[in-house]
Amino acid sequence: MKKFIRNISAVLIAFILCSPAIAQNTPAAFKVPAYEKFSLPNGLTVYLMEQHEVPLISVSAIVPAGAIYDAEKSGLANLTAAGLQYGTKSYSKTKIEEALDFIGADLNTFASKESATITSKFAAKDAEKVLPILKEVMVDPVFDKDEFEKERKRVLSSLEQAKLSPRNVINAYWDKFIYGSHVYANPVNGSPVTVEKFSVDDLKTFYKNNYGPQGSAIAIVGDFNTKMMKARIITLFGGWKKTGLSQNNLAAQAVSPPQTARVLLVNKEDARETTFLIGGMGIRRDNPDFVAIEVVNTVFGGRFTSWLNDELRVNSGLTYGARSSFVPLKYSGTFSISTFTAVKTTLPTIEKTLQVLDSLHATGFDEKTLASAKNYVKGQFPPRYETAGQLAGLLTQMFWYGFNESFINNFQSNVDGLTLARSKEVINKYFPKDKLQFLLIGKSEDIKSIAAKYGEVTEKDIKADGF
Questions:
Q1: Do 311 and 196 fall within a single domain?
Q2: Which of 141, 212, 260, 441 could connect to 243 by a Cys-Cys bridge, CB 3.0–4.6 Å?
Q3: 52, 58, 124: which is closest to 394 by C-alpha?
């Protein structure tokens, strides 16, 4: 028996030593699985990716119908996306819910800053039941008036509740502060004053003007036969008519960057904390340095062991957490450092934050730190695209932002190729240092004098409508 164990141990050791992947701790780079892409005559782009490991199918569809198209009716895109599920020409809202619940399928609709998204997940055997419902939700919604009124009241209630917590609304204030009059400043959820005025006819008009096959895409990933699914999608969506209007691409208009350091102070009279963002303009999603920026930001504020979190939480105890992030959009983007602290420690927290940012620019980081960040980023990357739902979302993101599978397939090599010299260039180019923008939410009486140290101060009250 002992001899047998020794032999097994020897075999295992030999296997480990002889396996390059294990010995070098370098897992194979993730590659985008094969897929088929085609377009229907009406302009709808379709992605089909067979994945037979699990008997499930996931769908992700994206439509150019986000908050940037709200015009003066803030929150309309969001309500319209929700309204897709109020019922269709063949299915009431109740019938949709009952049909999907009975087979354990799900279907979700929502709007973001730039687009509206429809997602669904269901067992492969139920495709013939779910796909017609999905098609009607996208193509033939009726926007039931009673269901609309219920949803509008829910949205109004959630908008009132949101301002009780600064962290729920600080990003909406930030977008308005940074983007100004640009359509990227439009808050996705709207405001009580705008939402209160909506009627179901507003949703119908928004749908008519913005929902159509042109400029839209649908990705289907999972356990199916590509040839059969292609025929099914052509039958279902081939008759989707183009919208009558041509959208104005307002998002493509240039964003005017701030010319001076500024402070937006949002008064919350009962605040015991100061919640703040510091930053400025960021990057577009198609930025060629996207991967390098992610690695550098990992060091600075993108993970729990980042410089920001170490200095503000671990070493000084000024906050429970601090981070930095880029929010890239199709034509612009923002960068911000975010954290919160007790009112009495507002000044030292801001000062410590700026010191860490100054250190990033003044000294950069060493090879050991860069290697750690690279390993972290590479380790976090594959889990983003493990499931059919994640892959379907990836395909529609590739469509929307105009990148192809080379971004995924070359990700690991692009991370590995980042040098210290190049990281320094990335820091200087993309991480703002001058003309910083500050957004503080707290009790104005206690922190106004602090805010004034960092730029011209504009004051708002959190109870006021909008952002």
A1: no
A2: 212
A3: 58
